[in-house]
Each structure stands twice: as C-alpha cells, then as structure tokens.
Design brief:
The complex is a heterodimer of chains A (121) and B (112).
Chain A (H helix, E strand, L loop, with lengths): L3 E3 L3 E4 L5 E7 L5 E8 L3 E10 L2 E4 L6 E7 L2 E6 L8 E8 L1 E4 L5 E3 L3 E2 L3 E5 L1
Parallel strand pairs in A: 2-13
Antiparallel strand pairs in A: 1-3, 3-8, 4-5, 4-9, 5-6, 7-8, 9-12, 9-13, 10-11
Chain B lengths: L3 E4 L2 E5 L4 E7 L4 E9 L5 E8 L4 E4 L2 E6 L4 E6 L8 E9 L5 E3 L3 E6 L1
Parallel strand pairs in B: 2-11
Antiparallel strand pairs in B: 1-3, 3-8, 4-5, 4-9, 6-7, 7-8, 9-10, 9-11
The chains are: A mainly beta (121), B mainly beta (112).
C-alpha cells in the first residue's frame, strides 16, 4: 500500500511567519505534488516535482516555494504567511508509467496524503 | 482555458437509490480522467481511472464513463449506502504536461 504522510494535520500560524509543510511518500515515486483546496475552487496545483531537486510551478506558486532534496520528501514553504494562505494543503505522489515521444509523461493515479489544515491569523 | 466542472455541487438521496454524478471538461486532448472520493477533513482516495482510449471503468457498485467528444464523464453509484456519503471529485490530466485539473466536487449525502 502506498503511504503518503504529512507532518501536521492542523497548524495555526501568525501573519509573517515562515511555515514549513512536509510530505513523505514510501513508494519510491518520481512525482510529488502540492495542492491547496478551498471551498468552491477545487484543488489547485501550487508546485510539483518530477525528480530530486527538480520542480515546476503550478497554477498558483506566488508566495510559496518548495524543496526536494530527497526522493521521498517534498516540502512546501510559505516564506511569509498571509491570511489568504489559510487553506487545506494536500500532498500527492505518483509514478510516471509512460513517456511520449514528445517528452511529456503520462502520470499514473495520484496518491494523496491526509492533508494539513493551515490557519493563518 | 482548461476547466473541469461538476454539477450538482451537492446532492442528497435516500439509501438504496441509484445515482449519477456529472463531470464536464473543456478541451478533448486528455490523457485520462479520474474520479476521487474525499471524506471530510481527509485526503483524496482514487476510485476509478479511465484512460483516453477507454469508454468506461467499473469497480464494485461504481461505474465511470468517458465521452471525450462531448467532454463529459459520469460516475454511476448503484444501490447507494450511507457510507457513500462524501465529496466526489473529477480530475482530468491533459496532454502536453503533468498538470491535472480538478473539479470543485459534488458533496453527496446518502440518508439512512
């Protein structure tokens, strides 16, 4: 069974604090993702990583950075937390099982962690 | 712009009823479409994944269909149970990249 764990289920921080959210997967997956989920907006991709030290911006990277020093661990960093970053943060991982001749990969099903509910006061 | 829409946003049905959840997406250039289940305050659990070359997938009481030409997918749940109460999300992976676009979900309540 794939297991994706996140360091905290609930987190309360103050405006301006630097916040670290950690995600660990135990299945040697190449891809890891960070999403935020807000009511009525669905999941929005913040960043993803397709290999160690490799990262790509998602749809809403502003105010966030990421770090992937080891294959199993993907960290999301809020450089200076703001109230509009109050949200549910979900981490996911997946394998690439097919690469097209154009270089783009087809991502297998994503496995999600339990989420971190962050409140910024 | 690539978008995924789910209607209705919420649905309440009595136990035992068969029901259909709808998902529509713009742009038919997709790799796959996936249905997830999310329980309150929890992460997402994959239910069914349909590759772009497939028409449907089945797992137990669940059946998901895909019509790329019309940009639609449906998730059929047979003989609903209170334990099916959750939010169901549709997600589409488009060609040309790793990005997966999620719908906002349909919140399902099954009353005993």
């Amino acid at each position: 069974d794939v297991k994706v764990t996140q360091s905290s289920r609930y987190l309360v921080k103050r405006t301006g604090e630097k916040v670290f959210l950690e995600c660990v997967q135990d299945m040697d997956h190449e891809n890891m993702f960070w999403y935020r989920q807000d009511p009525g907006l669905g999941l929005r991709l913040i960043y993803f990583s397709y290999d160690v030290k490799m990262k790509e911006k998602g749809d809403i990277p502003e105010g966030y950075s990421v770090s992937r020093e080891k294959k199993e661990r993907f960290s999301l960093i809020l450089e200076s937390a703001s109230t509009n970053q109050t949200s549910m943060y979900l981490c996911a991982s997946s394998l690439i099982f097919l690469r097209t001749s154009g270089g783009a990969g087809v991502v297998e099903t994503q496995y999600f962690g339990p989420g971190t509910r962050l409140l910024v006061l | 712009k690539q978008e995924v829409t789910q209607i209705p946003a919420a649905l309440s049905v009595p136990e035992g009823e068969n029901l259909v959840l709808n998902c529509s997406f713009t742009d038919s250039a997709i790799y796959n479409l996936q249905w997830f289940r999310q329980d309150p305050g929890k992460g997402l659990t994959s239910l069914l994944l349909i590759q772009s070359s497939q028409r449907e997938q089945t797992s137990g009481r669940l059946n998901a269909s895909l019509d790329k030409s019309s940009g639609r997918s449906t998730l059929y749940i047979a003989a609903s149970q209170p334990g099916d109460s959750a939010t169901y999300l549709c997600a589409v992976q488009y060609t040309g990249g790793f990005k997966t676009i999620f719908g906002a979900g349909t919140r399902l309540f099954v009353k005993a």
